[in-house]
Amino acid sequence: MTTNKWALPLAVAAAIATLIAGGAVANASIPDAGPTVNAAAGSAVRSAVETSDDEITRECVQAGQDVPDPASWRPGVRFDLDAENGFLVIRNDEYAAVCLVKNGKGTGIAGGVDTRRHVYGDLTAARPFDYLSSWNEGFPATGSVHFGIASSEVTAVSLVGPDNSVTPAVVRDGTFAAKSAFPESVDEPTTNYVRATLKDGQVIEGPFRS
C-alpha cells in the first residue's frame, strides 16, 4: 500500500488534503526566474528569489522542532505545487530536510530533521546520492514529488521509472527534486532509480532508496 509518509502540521495537512481531493497538484511546476530583458534585470530577479528562499529557510527552522545548529541552514531546491503551496529543501553541511511552504512562507519541516539517515556524511563515490523523502499524491497514490541529496560532484540527476521513463530532476546545492508518475512506498522496495551525472561526465545509477 502506498501512503503519504509525512506527518504534517495540522494546518498544512488540511491544506494539502484539500489539494489532493481537488486534484490541484496535477500540474506541479518548478519555479524559474522567467523571461528577462537584460542581464541586470535577470540578476535582480534571481536575487529576489534567493532572498525569498533565505527567508523561507529561516521561517522553517524557527517553526521546526529540535532543529540542530539553527543558524547553519541554507536553501536548496524549491518545488512549487501551485501559487500557494510548495516545498523548499533546506540543508546544512550534515543534514537536509523538506520545508513546507504556504503563500511564500515557511510553515515547518515535514517529518522533522532526520539525523540518523540520509545524511551527507554517508554519501560515497559509488553512491553519491541518497533518498530524502517523497510526497505522494492521492490515495492510492497517482504520482509523487521526490526529494534527495547529492554530493558536490553531482551536476545532474534523473529519476528512472519502472517503465524506463526518465524524469529530469532540478539540482541545487546538493539537493534535488522531481515529480514522477511513480510513487515511493515505505511498505515496498524502491520503485525509482537514480541516474546521476558527475562533473567529470561519469554516470552512476542506483536504487533511489537503498
From TrEMBL:
Residues 1-28 form the signal peptide. This is Secreted protein. Keywords: Signal. The lineage of its organism: Bacteria, Bacillati, Actinomycetota, Actinomycetes, Pseudonocardiales. The keyword Signal applies. The keyword Signal applies.
